[in-house]
C-alpha cells in the first residue's frame, strides 16, 4: 500500500496535469515510490498503476524502459556508469573493469555487504565530462580515473 507521504507527493505531481491525464504523472510516481522503498517491485508498480488508474502494463513499460528505475533490490549506493560511445572513447571500459574488480560484482549485482550496486547506464548528457557515473541517480562524478574511483569508493564506504 502506498504510504500517506507518497500519496501526498504523487498528488502534488498530478496537480500539474489535466485531471483526465493521470498517466502523465507515472514517471514521477514511480520515482517517488522508488525513493521511499529503494526499488520497484511488481507490487509497487501495480500500486502506482492502481493509484493513477492506468493499466498496470503502462506503468511497467515505463519502469522497464528507463534505466533510472530499479526492478530489483540495489545497494545503499547505486553506481551507474555511462558506457555509451563518448564515455567509452574516454576510458569508461577501464573504469568499469576497475570497479568490477574492486567491488567484486558485475553489472546489476550487489556487494555482499549491501553497500554497492553497479549499473550500466545510457548517455547522461554530459559527454564533455566523460567518463562519468551517477551515485544514486543524484550526484554525478565526471572525468573519472581509477584514482578518483578509489577515492569515491573509500569515501562512500566510510559513510
TrEMBL record:
Pfam families per record: 2Fe-2S_thioredx
Glycoprotein recorded as keyword: no
Superkingdom of the organism of origin: Bacteria
Keywords: 2Fe-2S, Iron, Iron-sulfur, Metal-binding, Oxidoreductase
Textual note on the cofactor: Binds 1 [2Fe-2S] cluster.
Alphabetized Gene3D superfamilies for the sequence: Glutaredoxin (3.40.30.10), NADH-quinone oxidoreductase subunit E (1.10.10.1590)
Molecular functions (GO terms): 2 iron, 2 sulfur cluster binding; metal ion binding; NADH dehydrogenase activity
Protein name (database record): NADH-quinone oxidoreductase subunit NuoE
Gene (name only): nuoE
